Amino acid sequence: MATLYLTEQGAVVRKTGERLIVEKEGQELLEIECFKLDTILIFGTVHVTTPALILLLERGIELAFLSMSGRLRGQLTPPKAKNVLLRMAQYQKCQDRACALALARCFVRGKVENALALLTRQHRNYPERGFDPYRQELQRLLHRIDTVPALNALRGLEGTAARIYFQGLGLACRQDLAFPGRRRRPPTDPVNALLSFGYVLVNTELASLLDAMGYDPYIGFYHQLDYGRPSLALDLLEEFRVPAVDRLVLNLANLRVMQQDDFVTDEERGGLRLRRQALGKFFRAYEEHLNHEFTDRLSGETTTLRK
C-alpha cells in the first residue's frame, strides 16, 4: 500500500470505476487503482470530486489537506474504529497522573536516546567536530528522566535536552545548508523548513493510524490537551523525530540533494518552504527512508520505520 502526494495546483481528482484519475485542463496526469493506496496527501489547491471522496471513504483511504508549507488543514477519515470501550479506557488513563507520567517518561526517554544515538554516530565519524560535550549532557539528562517527579518538570528536562541536541545537530550539517538552531514559527532557513515539514508528515500518519486503531488522537499523556491539538499523535511523534525526520534531513542537506534554490518564501506564514518542483524530490526520499528495511536490535526482526 502506498501514499499518493498531489501537488499540481488546479488539478482535479475524479473517480472512474475503482480507479482515481488526476486531470488538469483536460489532460490526464495520473491514473491509479484504489487498492494500491492507503493515504492521499493534497498540498495547496487540488480539487476532489464528490464521487471520488465517496470512493475513498468506502475503500478506507485516508485523505489529508495541507498547505504548500505542510500545515495540516484537515482530514477525511473513513469510519473504521468503533471500539468505544478502548477510548473510554484511554480517557480514564489520561486522568491518572501516575499512568500519564509513566507513559510520558517513555516518550521522552525514547526521544533523548535517539538524539544521543545520532550525535554519538556523528562523533564516531567526525570526532574533531566537538560533539562530545553535547553527548555527555544528553547522557546526564537521560539518567534523570526516571526520577523526575511531575509532568511539568519532565517537560522542562525535555526542552533542555532538545536545545542541547539541536546545538549538536548544527555541527553535523557539513555542507551549504547550515543549521543555526531550531526555528519553528516560522522556519527561517532550509534545514528548519525541512524539519518542520517532515514532522508534519509523520504526525499526520500517526494521527490517522491512531484513529484507525480506535484511539482518540487528541487525548494524550505528555502533551497538554488543547483545542485542535492531536496530543497523543504528538506524544508518539517524540520517538520518531530523530530516526524518521532528522536523519533524513541531515542526509538531504549533507549530500546536497536539497539546495538553497529549492526553497521559496512562504507568503502565507512567513519563513521558507519547499518549492512545488522540489516537493517531489523530498517525497521520494521520505518514502524511501520510511520504507527502508533494517534489523530491530531488540527483536531481531526485519522491519521499517513505517511498520
Explain this structure.
The protein is α/β, with parallel strands linked by helices. It folds into two domains: 2-66, Ribosomal Protein L15, Chain: K, domain 2; 84-303, CRISPR-associated endonuclease Cas1, C-terminal domain (Four Helix Bundle (Hemerythrin (Met), subunit A), Up-down Bundle), CATH 1.20.120. Helices cover 48% and strands 17% of the residues. The protein is built from eight helices and twelve strands. It has helices spanning 50-58, 84-94, 97-125, 132-144, 151-172, 190-213, 231-254, 276-290; strands spanning 2-6, 12-16, 19-24, 27-33, 37-43, 47-48, 62-66, 72-76, 263-265, 272-274, 294-295, 302-303. It has a four-stranded mixed sheet with strand order 1-5-7-8, sandwiched between helices. Strands 4-3-2-6 form a four-stranded mixed sheet. A two-stranded antiparallel ribbon has the order 9-10. α3 (97-125) runs parallel beside α7, α6 (190-213) runs antiparallel to α7 (231-254) and α7 (231-254) crosses α8 (276-290). The longest helix is centred in the middle third of the chain and has 29 residues, at 97-125. The chain is globular. It starts with a strand and ends with a strand. The relative contact order is 0.11.
